[in-house]
Amino acid sequence: MRPQFRLLTDELVERIIAEGFELLMDPGVRVHNDEALELLADAGAQVDFDAQVAHVPRPIVEDALEAAHSAFHLYDLDGEPAVHYGGDDVQFDPGSAAITVLDSASQEQRAPVTADFVKFVKLVETLPQLDAQSTAIVCTDVPQEISDLYRLYLALIAMRKPIVTGAFRKDTWWTMKDLLVAVAGGKDELAARPIAVFDVCPSPPLLWSDLTCQNLIDCARHRIPSQLVSMPLAGATAPVTIAGAVVQHTAECMSGVTICQLANRGAPIVWGGSPAVFDMREGTTPMGAVGTWMIDCAYTEVGKALGLPTHAYLGMSDAKVVDAQCGLESAGGALMGALAGVNMISGAGMMDFESCQSFEKLVIDAEIIGMAKRLIAGVEPRDDPLALTLMRELGHRAEYLGQLHTAKWFSEEQYIPSSLIDRGSLDSWVRKGRKTAWERAQDRVEKLLAECEPPPMADDLREELRAITLSAAQRFGMDELPPLPEA
Amino acid sequence: MSHDILEQITRTLVACQPDATVDETRRALEAGIEPLAIIEQGLVPGMETVGEKFEAGEYFLPQMVIAANAMQEAMALLEPELLARHQALETPGTVVIGTVQGDIHEIGKSLVATMLSANGFRVHDLGVDVSPGAFVDKAKETKAGLLGLSALLTTTMAAQRETIQALEEAGIREQVRVMVGGAPVTPEWAEAIGADGHADDAVGAVALARRLT
């Protein structure tokens, strides 16, 4: 039996969904994008084009929810299905779009550059616990206008895993699409075997900005999966009650599904988010708060009830260094998301809310993810009888360590961590230099990078991706791309 | 042909197929291969590979113990053959091992005993809750050059010291080297009680035993 926990009764899920429908009629959803307003109006919504507000009747939303697929795959660069959005499958990718990296030497945050993100992508490739890449770091050595597509370019030339990404502008989405089409080998191939999912973020409460709404529509038209990242901030931009914040999340995601399905019926879309409770002392958005995790897990239940694939930003920390707070917050969120059956849990490596990526935290989080995956794999009977045969054979001898039965099952029954997790004796820990988790994480990063092999990408494809990216860079005043670090 | 069988012995030992290792050993004897060759060219290279894989983090304790047990089973077949030929396997030493008085923890001690056996030591395992007198008697009887004292509790560590004192009182401390181990045991403790060495795990214990004998 797979362990799963629930926060909501069926009745509460129904009430949340019912109020979500109500909100889309009154007060309606704000849509700062004419194309989307037209789509909604054509479908029968009452649209106030001046105020840019759509009042969407329940049947239109219900029809869209019906049309959206309950499951789809993301493919790796070898064309194999690698991530399954749907059911209770749980997968992990790093947190997205960090604007700083934690410097390994100084433990200070600094501006990320090309070499940082290339290193990060390599690390994610080597960590088996992570199922997908993300465009995790925003490089500051290229013009800001191309920083979204540039990180996708860097990831594509160094990765094989699928990727969670997103655009910062309307026009750059098209360049990002071109990069993906080049890698997939054509527009139809990309639609048939998507390798990326785009985060699209409504603004709380109940607003679709022009940019993100256009990204949503463009993804739908190209049948590129999009992932709704609704982020109610409970107590500031959303009701302070967890149930109330989930109602707002529900309405925003319903409106996203509706716009997506009106743009292209059957386009893949994910019910996701990055909500938070509002910190009433600091005025911040804590990702490590238990209330934040509860909103995530509760909306996941709503998404599952509506038959949609799910996503959440979990497993992050608000800590500024990789310390005890960092570990406890990251583990709490990741374990809870796994137990809730969230299909894609984004957050590994991320700290200082959602602003900083750390190589060391990433490798620590990989161990947390390994433990979380073991947890939800549950307790299997394995043998029938469970223990009688073996225990009678051994009698009262404590010789289980040398049994073939032990060798057969131990690596499935136990999650075996890397040497990052210290389980040696005090003496051996002292002998190895009294290293803290931070120092062991540094060692692990170094070891993994040394083992990492360059991905087998054909030279002409690599050159094509470079040409697409360079052409975009030149439009924004950059003549040459920053040099890539030596492989 | 003989080369193939010896390779099979090595391969099955590394692959943790103990029954196959024993079968292949029997087959090697039937094919007329010298028992010393079976040990040196079949079993020992297999144990070395298993040890290397353990050190590299690829193998874990179950594989180590299964391989060591398979080696011992194969040796049980080979020893009468060696005797019949008036041959003896060169052993690095004879060890008396046990968990000290008042302590009933067995796993760590047994693991060290198994690994020492698999590495050619003649091991006399006295079990758990072993009195200082019993250690002394067995050491005298077997003329062991090495004594292994295990203690898992801070409260039973003192019995390691008492056992060393018993060796002195019996007048055999000069003939026996003493190694101590167990979770609470540190190099400082080993020195304080006059032991000759301390190891952190079973692999370390084998290396230490080699150094001490």
Provide a descriptive summary of the structure in words.
The complex is a heterodimer of chains A (487) and B (213). Chain A is an alpha/beta fold. Chain A has 17 helices and 20 strands. Chain A has a five-stranded parallel β-sheet with strand order 9-10-11-13-15. In chain A, helix 4 crosses helix 5 (147-158), helix 5 (147-158) packs parallel to helix 6 (170-184) and helix 11 (324-340) packs parallel to helix 12 (359-377). The longest helix of chain A is centred in the middle third of the chain and has 22 residues, at 242-263. Chain A starts with 9 loop residues before the first helix and ends in a 12-residue tail after the last helix. In chain A, 49% of the residues are buried. The model of chain A has no long low-confidence stretch (mean pLDDT 97). With 213 residues, chain B is α/β, with parallel strands linked by helices. Chain B has helices at 2-14, 18-30, 35-55, 61-84, 107-118, 132-142, 158-169, 187-192, 202-212; strands at 94-99, 122-125, 146-150, 177-181, 197-198. Chain B has a five-stranded parallel β-sheet, sandwiched between helices. The mean pLDDT of chain B is 93. Chain A binds chain B through residues 398-399, 401-404, 406-407, 410-411, 416, 419, 424-428, 431, and chain B through 16, 18, 57, 60-63, 65-66, 68-69, 106-107, 110-111, 114, 183, 185-187, 198, 200-201.
